[in-house]
Fold:
Amino acid sequence: MKALFAKYIKNFKVWGIIFGGNLFLLFYCILFLNPVSSSNDDFFLGIIAGNGFGSNSSFLIYTSTFYGYFLKVWYTLFPNVNWYIVFSYFLLLISVSTIEYILIIKYKTSGVLLSIFFSVGFSHYFYVVFQYTKVASLLTLAGFFILLYWLDEDHDSARKRKLKYVISALFLFTGSLIRLQPFFMVCVFGFGLWVSRFLQALKKRECKKFFRYFICPLFPIFGLILGFSFFEEKIWNTSTEELSYFQEYNQVRTKLVDYEIPDYDTHLKEYQALQISGNDVENLKRWCFADSDKFSLKVLQQIASMNHSNYFSPRKFLKYIRDNIITHAIWKLCFILTLCSLFFAKRKDYGKLLYPHAAFFFVLFYLHYIGRITEWVINSLWITYLLAVIAVVCAHFPNYICTRKKLLKAAVCCLCGTVVFNSDILVIRAITSQPVHKELYQCMNAISNSKELNFFCDVTSVYDMSRDYRIFDKTPKDFFSNIFFSGAWFSCSPQENHTKKKAEIKNIYRDILYLEDYVVVDKEAILQKLVYLNENYSSTARYSKIQDLYGYPIYKFSDNYTGTRTESNSSVVLQLISSEGGYYQISGSLDCTPDQLHDATVYLELTDPDTNITTTYAGRFEQTNTYGLYSLRYNKTLADTNQITFEIPEYTALSSQYQYKLLLRYNNKAQVLSVNWK
Structure:
């Protein structure tokens, strides 16, 4: 009993050292290496869970709703903390510490050295370039390590074995909750390690013991995981008509956006039958599918069904391996580790050493076959591959018996060598990289806090949001209550439907033309959107620029006014100030009091007397809120002004023969003023 207690204390001390070292490394990465989300997925998930849509939502779309409920409790209790990131880092820390602890207590010297090399040399892959796919992968791998390397069927007591089964189940189940796809990816590696144990038991004629300790416990564990995932996907997340529709919609959206949009010229007849133009297809390529009237679920399904081509190409796959795999530092390292181990291993163990490489290329082949070669998935695969190689290498590398002093020297040398090996990240980046909130951060915070307007965002223009926000930043409250995307992965979700209804928006895309307090943030493809609106809704639709906000242009689309008009005896004098940056800048002043202007919007109407074609452009009032946003609608709570400005595209003809009128619009009524030019 005394010896058992001493062993327990010793193991607990080892765990404490490992956990403390990784905790120090985690804080170093957060404080000095400016960690970022490698995609907007984690950024959006944190917003969804943390009151971004007006309430703490548990429906996280790609992460389990069960985990969403857990986060919802914490966001409700402590709303100013970004709990999604906090718990993600906590799970990363526990996973890495557990894997290293198992390697060290089982393989001693080689486990110590390779654990140091992994945690310090490759922490960039999971602590700095953050992504929830990596969290799920490491959790799942830790669960397999407990089952296959920590469990000792000969010496563990029944109580200790049960405890290890429970801990393993928690890791595996949590990994599946975070992201189910990487869970299955890691299972490919875990299954190979499990088969290795089975072959070993078969040779020793210990199949009965193997069945008892390594097969029977897996049935309830994997039964729980697969049963719960089936229940959540097929029953829980389809429990209402809205959720059921979103599941179906999201599946076809994934087929289009995550893979490829069928080529327009190749499928010309099919597109024409659906009344889809070439410009419509170009919009789809920019994720602009939020027009629920044009791109209904049925239409999107028909577009997705056009692409019958196989994503896989042997030549492209081999080229990808040549250009991205065999030149990668992790592949070179794994190759060298395996090659060195082969000198010490017996021929019968060659299969164990080579299996992680086979599993890696099998998963890589499958991902390439289905067209899912993305940065964050590949980085998760690299981490899994490296740890699987380290595990089998430790088992076949000689475990030299070192004194405590020699082991400490070896660990220090390994640590120093690892820091030198990874100095570009650990040292140079820490000195040179300063976490600064950039223009996109300032722009998104400004428009989110300006609730008097709704903003339509081209998702490809603001795709780098996650890189401009620091990893633990909490976005403004109700971040998405007035921001709508041309087509993000949460399009048509219950959360977005709720904010659309509250903002009285029926069609996210079409309503940018007809709602007065609805503007567009677009840095790249405003003309493409104009063509889309001209083709589908109004040939007289036009846009004008309201302003540049931190380098991001804000536009207002408009069409000819059809409401009640009241002619005014007053007139306004307008002056063409400049034509820089591709826009005519026209300014003037109104002879009106703030009470007369209150709640008004201003438009300039141009009519060609020869063709009788009228076009209308929106303007702004020269008053700004605290976030630097100009008023589209006159606001009495801001500084008084009678100055107005129009920024009209230079390709617009401004002829002296035209008839010009200025409209002060009050929703469905307008006061019409004549225009004189200075």
